[in-house]
Each structure stands twice: as structure tokens, then as C-alpha cells.
Specification:
alpha+beta; 275 residues; transmembrane; membrane; transmembrane helix
């Protein structure tokens, strides 16, 4: 379409140019037959031709400048992308869960975050939850360490799946959140950080029985780890338990982690630029 417009403009200007040249050579004839009006007509055509040529030249300059501007913008975007890739590739954080997972009742002082739907709420709900029925609130705590990269600044969880007696129990963020931010607590005694998130499910659910052993064999955590410099990676962490559980006297359930595996689902990226 643009090429056709340029062609029409060039043809029109050529017609005007030809008419102006003819008018110049036929000036005597026009003067003899139309007197002064003929000379004015010839000068008008010449002036219009001059204006048309100036317009065409300005248009060509404009098109050239626009092309150069687009090239510069593309080069700047490529340079910015390259800088971001360099920054992200050297400032991410990969963690590994270690030792054991703890499950215990959630403290009452944090329940208001769930009922008031705060953001972040630090709560995840079971997929088949019925909010009209009585609810149980429990907290899981898992120690972790950074095995590669910078210090972890925050951890966001999009899904947790527990496997118990060949049954899968999925926990997901609350309705007003697309991911749940976990709470990170540093333990002065063990000198390591802990991931903490609260789980909500209906009382009487087969997912968890406080008075009995709950033989979880595997836990899958779909999460996004963000370093203190704002670089994130998304992946799936799988925890395996060969000696599933033990119940301690204070209602604390301990699950020894036999092995863990982290699968990277997305290359490092700067988190705030992807929101």
C-alpha cells in the first residue's frame, strides 16, 4: 500500500513537471492568447512543481530518518535484552530442601490473614475445599539451603501436591492470589533458613490425621525462587520420604527427607519485568 502511494505521488509530480515545462516553452503563446493571465498560469504551475519537488524531498528525508530510528530502537532493545540476560544469568538463586519437614497446627495469631484475605496471606487451600464446613489450619516448615547463586530473597508457590496411599492432595493459592508467597524464617540454632507456608483443608479430611501416622511418600512443590537482586527461576521441587513420619508429644509431625530433586522449568528472568 505504501509503495502504491509513493508511485501515485511520483506520477503526479511528473505530470505537473511536464505541464510546467510545456508552459515555459509555450509562454509566448499563452501571453499572446491570454495576455497576462497566461503568464500567471505558467508561473503558478512552475511554483506548484517546485512545491511538489520539495515535498517529495522532505518525504524521502522523513522516511530515511524513520528507518534509522527504527534500527536504533531495535539495537537498543537488543542491547537491553543482552544486559538483562547477563544480569539474570549471574544473579539467580537455586535452593535445595534438606533434613526434614515439620507439620504442626497454625498459630492463631496468623488466622486473620486468611479470613481477611490479606496479600500476601501465606495460606494455600486444598483443591476440593468447602468453605462452608469447619476448617483445619496447619503449618509446614521445610529447611533449605542455597546450592547455587545468590541469597534467596523470596519464594512463591503456585502448587503443592502431597501423595499418600496412592491418593494425591493438591493445594493451591487462595482465590484472590495467583501464587502464594511463603514466609522465610532464619533459625539461629541450626543456622539455616526455613520455608513456611500454611495449609487449609476441611476438618476430617483424609489428607491429614493429627493422631495417626500420615505416610506421605512424595511432595511436589511448584515454586518460583527470587534472589535478593530480583532474579527469579521457576521450577519443581520433589521431596521423597522413605521413613515417612513420626509424631512427637507436642503434636509436631516430623518427616525425614530421604532425597530431593529440583527441575528447572524456566530460565532465569528479572521478576519485576515479567509482571
Amino acid at each position: 500500500m505504501k509503495d502504491k502511494r509513493y508511485l501515485y505521488l511520483v506520477i503526479s509530480l511528473l505530470i505537473v513537471l511536464i505541464a510546467s515545462v510545456i508552459s515555459l516553452f509555450a509562454g509566448t503563446f499563452l501571453a499572446a492568447n491570454f495576455d497576462v493571465i497566461g503568464i500567471r498560469i505558467a508561473m503558478l504551475i512552475v511554483a506548484f512543481a517546485s512545491f511538489g519537488s520539495s515535498t517529495l524531498f522532505s518525504l524521502l528525508v522523513y522516511l530515511n530518518n524513520r528507518t534509522v530510528s527504527r534500527i536504533n530502537d531495535d539495537q537498543n532493545k537488543r542491547a537491553e535484552l543482552y544486559r538483562d540476560l547477563q544480569f539474570a544469568s549471574s544473579n539467580y538463586s537455586i535452593i535445595e530442601f534438606t533434613d526434614r519437614m515439620l507439620i504442626q497446627k497454625e498459630s492463631d495469631r496468623y488466622l486473620h490473614k486468611f479470613h481477611q484475605k490479606d496479600t500476601p496471606s501465606f495460606h494455600m487451600v486444598i483443591s476440593d475445599i468447602d468453605l462452608e464446613k469447619p476448617l483445619s489450619f496447619y503449618t509446614i516448615r521445610i529447611p533449605f539451603k542455597v546450592i547455587e547463586g545468590k541469597t534467596a530473597g523470596s519464594i512463591y508457590i503456585s502448587k503443592i501436591r502431597f501423595e499418600k496411599d496412592l491418593v494425591k492432595y493438591d493445594f493451591q493459592p487462595m482465590a484472590h492470589e495467583h501464587e502464594t508467597q511463603s514466609y522465610m524464617l532464619y533459625n539461629e540454632t541450626t543456622q539455616r533458613k526455613n520455608l513456611i507456608v500454611n495449609l487449609v483443608f476441611n476438618s476430617g479430611s483424609s489428607y491429614f490425621n493429627e493422631e495417626a501416622l500420615n505416610p506421605y511418600t512424595k511432595i511436589k512443590i511448584q515454586m518460583e525462587v527470587t534472589s535478593i537482586l530480583g532474579v527469579s527461576i521457576a521450577g519443581l521441587s520433589e521431596l521423597y520420604f522413605t521413613n515417612p513420619t513420626q509424631v512427637e508429644g507436642n503434636g509436631l509431625h516430623t518427616y525425614k527427607i530421604n532425597s530431593s530433586n529440583f527441575t528447572l522449568n524456566k530460565t532465569p528472568f528479572i521478576r519485576h519485568k515479567n509482571q
